[in-house]
Write a structure and sequence with these properties.
The protein is of the alpha/beta class. It contains six helices and five strands; from the N terminus they run E-H-E-H-E-E-H-H-E-H-H. Strand 1, helix 1 and strand 2 form a beta-alpha-beta unit.
Length: 197
Amino acid sequence: MSRPLCPHCQRPPRTCLCQWVRPTPNQVSVLILQHPSEVGRAKNTAGLLGLSLSQCETRVGEQWPEAELRALLDPHRQPVLLYPQTDDLPAPRFEPGRGMAPERYQLLILDGTWRKSRKMLYLNPLLQNLPRLALTDTPESRYRIRRARKPGQLSTLEASCYALAHLEGGRVDYNALLEAFDGFNEQHLAFRPSSHA
């Protein structure tokens, strides 16, 4: 017998996201490419991000035919991949166009662990050739329910909010969504058993 799911966020009632959704009118459109291993993970943050952003699409997979992936790119927008530079697969560094409106960008996010997202990058040559936006000088991560392997690693939601704020020049406020993310963390921390001395 299948468990009941929230009709809106498709999560079990215990981990329902709806109370943390903050409608946010992003100007840069977002395409989340989500690794299959992240689907259904209670701690995954892409679901909350996708429900909150006004312009966001999610596709699940690890490798796509190039024609299919190309069809997901908006022909009227400049695609930008949110990913750090890699020595073995150098890519064009993102340089914002002079006077280019935020509405002219499409931000691509690889949602998965670092290992999984790196594999997605390797398996999809089209992604390797996109201009890359690498975040620097970001605040300390607020993601307390999953352990980062290296300093400076952020959740998908945090990294996306900071990247969008950068591309949009601060025209959209992502603080409400980041504060809701704190509540999302608290919700999951409450499920952990108390430690006893």
